[in-house]
């Protein structure tokens, strides 16, 4: 009898523990959905997200995804029909492979799933808002698209980079970005160049040449969100006119605006571009006295560059770090009869005896999926009035740079992208 009571007590004790465990589970719907996502219990689809070493297999549930997105709904309906057809043809069930998603980052995809399952936006921040926006746009998750577009501008780490990344977005979202009065980029030319990057990507996706006509066609109404009248006339003539994106009448309307801003000739050359200057908002990434920054240089017409004389040069726009202007300097150098790419970091400050120590990571950026950047670290070096540039005079031969299997050279557009991540110390002797 005593042993029977002990046994019953043990059972009650175990039941109490199990009940406590059950009661400790999240009791809200959002909490339960988050737990379901976290455990992957009952998952009937897996996504292989990312590329290379950063790939990760993420479980999910089709019924939840289809309720949130018509893209997922169509995807899974198509997969189900194919599976039925394959099973009927072979008489056996076909093994279901994970859905490969190489063009979305793991963190961005996870955040999208968190939103779909539980409206959870806690992971959204200035560093990933545009990546998440690209994912949400790809899968047509409207609520998340709106959340990303409404993300506080002052918290975005780099809106210029955001605009470059916007090449993965649709035309409507590009219009939304370009139509904002507040963008912290270094002028309307930077916005125009970003729009061209977007247009070039869309041309490539459609298998079209990146010509002025095709760029203009894919930009559509987004072109008329750019404030061309706010670009200084000299810069407009040197940078915008040669692109060929604007028609003759559109260019004339800008020239007339500069000569008669209050009158113009609306009957002959109606101005279709906004004239209001964008509000300059500063973020941490735009602080000219920041300790680190990213510099980029897109080399156009690389095949011509490779045929030029020794010491032919290309410069990037300046990026201010520690209050000093830093640029990428690239030039052609001949070594042992072979033409090589020289790749330098240059800093030019005012004053006869200035100096600034800095370290940098040099990258030849991959322009193809599943190909890696060519990367070299340069340790601490002191830049000064006596020696204002430092780098690698012979990074690689142009033959290697333009090799079809490396991914660094975009043969269709004849371009190479160079980038340097710079970290600088406090300068001395600067006026």
From TrEMBL:
Protein's GO biological process: neurogenesis
Superkingdom of origin: Eukaryota
Organism: Globodera rostochiensis
Record field: transmembrane: none
Protein name per its UniProtKB record: Uncharacterized protein
InterPro entries membership: BTB/POZ_dom (IPR000210), MATH/TRAF_dom (IPR002083), SKP1/BTB/POZ_sf (IPR011333), TRAF-like (IPR008974)
PANTHER family cross-referenced by the UniProt entry: BTB (POZ) DOMAIN-CONTAINING 2B-RELATED, BTB/POZ DOMAIN-CONTAINING
Domain MATH, first and last residues per copy: 292-422
Residues annotated as domain BTB: 43-121
GO cellular component: cytosol
